[in-house]
Here is the input.
Amino acid sequence: MSKQILILKDKCKGCNLCVKACSFGAISVVEKIAVIDAAKCSYCGACEPACKFKAIEIKVDDIDRSSFSAYKGLWVYGENRDGVLAEVVYELVGEGRKLADKLKVELSVVIIGDKTQNLADDLFSYGVDNVYYIENKLLKDYDTNSYTKILEEAIEAHKPEIVLFGATSEGRSVAPRLAARVKTGLTADCTALDITADGDLAQTRPAFGGNIMATILCRTRPQLSTVRPHVMQKAAKLAKKGKKIELKSTIVEKDVVTKVLEFIKETRENVNLTESDIIIGAGRGVGSEENLKLIHQLAEKLGGVVGASRACVDAGWIDHFHQVGQTGKTVHPKIYIACGISGAIQHLAGMSSSDIIIAINKDADAPIFNVADLGIVGDVFTIIPALLKSL
Ligand code: FAD
Here is the structure.
């Protein structure tokens, strides 16, 4: 931690107020200007408010930056299966490009698998500068142990300052283990990222049960984050050429400690909530399972799907699979119509990045109207039938 105490000479009157406030005898006045004895000063801060002329400033930087210059560039973990990149990779590339441009550094994707080189050209067309890849039959299926080892070796060799992962099962598995290996922190489940004036990654995520949004800085390098899928905008196509860089690794068969025998696809009702352009969200205001039929009718008419608040799910009106929010799904549709939903922060965490939010609520003060682009104060049982009639 570095601390600095400054006397602003143009403001100091040599009045001795700070001398009296200092319990450590660290301040004296020499030629009408306060002078601090750094050996005695404890940086307790008592002098700063004691000065009527605002001539004292204490600066605290609790990050030791001496080793940071060795780290450069932003990496995205290129999660892939059967030769196809996960959707979240394109979202991270979109966000990563903006952050890399702010830092004036290169954006790279690191891909591990058995057929990875051919994914590079596609990534270059989304504005990626470099693709680090490793192709090895042993790496066909995700394996935490070997994938962590490869990433650890790659970070040691190339020293990126930021590495972003999707907050998917795979990202949540590899990122914490990697963070421990490279002795850095990890901010999990981020919903927003930015670059501070000091060039640090500002990582925002819900905290304390979703009641506040916390912005977290990392004291070490590299800075590692997992990012919720469907929160960031997908990358735009750019005509760009990039560089393929093969990763060297010491990986051998005994490093791969899991063997995938079979993949079994989930067979439950296929509600494509996270990929739908139109979602009709049902809240407690809908009143009952029976009344949800109205919401289903509207969804069908508009070619959308039904989402729900936790209140509906907890009441047993609809399966958890439909839940939108902090403990449900994060969605990013073109249109989200919130019907009888109050707009609790935990619900907003899952849908506030929708392109257009329309809210129907009979309470004009409901918080959902604070995020809505279009608000209808009224009863869902009047508004929705009228809407259905006019469609
Ligand atoms: P309410 O808050 O009860 O709101 C009902 C709304 O309907 C009111 O605004 C009312 O004015 C309106 N209304 C009533 N009748 C009508 C009518 N006839 N016409 C029009 N409007 C009407 N919630 C989630 O949704 N998703 C989550 O993932 C989630 N995770 C959570 C995690 C934690 C750790 C915690 C503590 C809570 C979580 N919650 C989540 C719960 C959240 O705090 C709220 O309790 C929940 O979102 C409320 O749902 P609601 O808006 O449907 O119900």
Remarks:
- The mean pLDDT is 92.
- The chain is about 25% helix and 25% strand.
